[in-house]
Design brief:
CATH superfamily of the largest domain: Nucleoside phosphorylase/phosphoribosyltransferase catalytic domain
CATH topology of the largest domain: Pyrimidine Nucleoside Phosphorylase, Chain A, domain 2
CATH class of the largest domain: Alpha Beta
Distance between the termini: 20 Å
Strand order of the largest sheet: 1-6-5-2
Number of helices: 16
Structural class: alpha/beta
Number of domains: 2
Shape: globular
């Protein structure tokens, strides 16, 4: 029996909602240049800020914003930014520091402007996993359900696959969109799937690269600031977080995932961003395909109706939660029914192909090119059934 079809082991563990008011929310992110001259004159030096954090003391919101500004202008060296990251890991970040860092990073560059749309702007973010092609299904499904989805995604990290890498396996498709292109696509078609631009949260680009080489990726405060700063810059009305839990996840235990959720919930509450957390399993690959192009093929087939049970379960749950965030008068069962109906109608399948074409992709040429590649059958040494597959 296939592992993802075993009874009694749900793929969706549970969900938590926070701050879903149903009212439009706005996060005011002024330019870091607003720091007045008198403040700069009294500001500690970067070395003094690092010494303060190194010795276990908290930094003020003004000090954190000053440091982030110095990071983006490269007045803080890479060594100094790395020192800040390491001190944040060893000494920890208070919730006040985490919130201040999130907001300072969010306003370190451009932000996606509002568009004249009656639709609510809702996004989903996943902590990543193996075979996690959910975003490829979720984005067009959410649009079919009446939402605006500005999806700024990432590349593969460690053993997990990246949505951008999967999209770019389609011939000609580009995820390198300008802010103007993103805004135009969202205005006209309610959807884009793109990578982070050089001017969108540049502080995160700098810090993330250094976190990867300094062993500071796993810190909860830094993860919170990295994820939420980009989502704030998208100008969202609500966010659904898919926290993967299991042996193949960055957060292997539910307790670790709940710790990150608690951190993100506090920041989202303080800035007025409605958020829902969904905890999903990542002990085995999601769906049946692992790899950039084959996951695109599986996602396309799934939207056409040929979908694995675990993939359908997780995707339906997440889109339903997005709908509920967009309108608090909609209950859980109504939201799920809407997702299933839109899925069966084939509308999301059409939106998927239209999105690929608008971003330069040629699906037919890709199918022809990959069809010509050699294939290898791997035979088992003996008869039997696969009971489980480690996603690592």
């Amino acid at each position: 029996m296939r592992a993802d079809l075993r009874q009694g082991i749900p793929n969706v563990l549970h969900a938590q909602m926070s701050g879903a008011t149903g009212e439009p929310h706005f996060v005011v992110c002024e330019s870091p240049a607003r720091a007045c001259q008198s403040f700069r004159e009294t500001m500690k030096s970067i070395k003094e800020l690092l010494r303060t954090k190194r010795d276990g003391h908290s930094l003020s919101a003004e000090e954190i914003e000053y440091f982030v500004t110095q990071t983006v202008t490269h007045e803080a060296s890479a060594a100094q930014v790395a020192a800040f990251l390491m001190a944040s890991c060893t000494r920890g970040l208070t919730m006040e520091e985490t919130t201040a860092l999130t907001l300072a990073m969010a306003r370190s560059g451009e932000q996606l402007p509002g568009v004249s749309s009656a639709r609510r702007r809702i996004d989903k973010h996943s902590t990543g996993g193996v075979g996690d092609k959910v975003s490829l299904l979720l984005a067009p499904l959410a649009v079919a359900c009446g939402l605006d989805v500005p999806m700024i995604s990432g590349r593969g990290l460690g053993h997990t696959g990246g949505t951008l890498d999967k999209l770019e396996s389609v011939d000609g498709l580009t995820t390198d969109l300008s802010m103007q292109q993103m805004t135009g696509l969202l205005q006209a078609h309610h959807l884009f799937m793109a990578g982070q631009t050089p001017t969108l949260v540049p502080a995160d680009r700098i810090m993330y690269a250094l976190r990867d080489v300094t062993g500071t990726v796993e810190n909860v405060g830094l993860i919170t600031a990295s994820i939420l700063s980009k989502k704030i810059a998208e100008g969202l009305d609500g966010l659904v977080m898919d926290l993967k839990v299991g042996s193949a996840a960055f957060l292997p235990t539910l307790q670790e995932a709940e710790l990150l959720a608690a951190s993100m919930r506090e920041v989202c509450t303080s800035i007025g961003l409605p958020v829902t957390f969904v905890f999903t399993r990542m002990d085995r690959p999601l769906g049946k395909a692992v790899g950039n192009w084959v996951e695109m093929v599986e996602a396309e087939a799934a939207l056409a109706g040929l979908v694995q049970r675990d993939l359908a379960e997780v995707t339906t749950e997440l889109v339903a939660r997005m709908i509920m965030l967009s309108d608090v008068s909609i209950g859980y069962e109504e939201a799920r029914t809407t997702v299933i109906d839109r899925w069966k109608s084939g509308q999301a399948h059409i939106i998927f192909h239209e999105m690929l074409t608008r971003q330069g992709g040629n699906w037919i040429r890709s199918m022809e090119r990959y069809a010509s590649l050699p294939r290898l059958d791997i035979l088992a040494a003996e008869n039997g059934y696969i009971d489980d597959i480690s996603a690592r």
